[in-house]
Amino acid sequence: MAVIPRSSYYDKHYRQTAALIRARRPYLIKNIFTGTALFGFAIGVYVFTIKAVAQDNFDDVEIPAASEPNKTPAVQPQP
Q1: Phi and psi at residue 67, in whole multiples of 5°?
Q2: DSSP states of the chain
Q3: Considering only CA atoms, which of 12, 13, 32, 9 is closest in space to residue 21?
Q4: Nearest-angstrom CA–CA distance, 16 and 43
Q5: Which residues contact 8 (CB under 8 A, 6 or more apart)?
Q6: Which of 37, 10, 38, 12 is nearest to 24 (CA)?
């Protein structure tokens, strides 16, 4: 059975130690800012897409009547 190698940043219960918290502290604000920017971009793309699709107007597309049988064969016979 393989054993997970120990790191000096985690205790025996694999919880963060004070050293790991100190090592991550300088990057906390940058990581929060980057995560917020990525999340905002993703939400912006989603909202833009939904609004763009909602503006589509399909009035010029003709919808055939359901009761009308198809008059043309799907495959033209070869002479």
Answers
A1: -80, -15
A2: ---PPP-TTB-TTSPBPHHHHHHHGGGHHHHHHHHHHHHHHHHHHHHHHHHHHHT---TTS----SSSPP-S-SSPPP-
A3: 9
A4: 32
A5: 17, 19
A6: 10
What CA–CA distance (Å, rounded) separates 30 from 25? 10
Query: Which tokens hold the place of 69?
Result: 């049988």
**Between 79 and 51, the higher pLDDT residue:** 51
Task: Quote the percentage of the chain above a pLDDT of 70.
Answer: 80
Tens of pLDDT, residues 8-46: 888 888 888 998 899 999 999 999 999 999 999 999 999
Letter for the amino acid at 61?
A: V
Q: Which residue has the tokens 């064969």?
A: 73
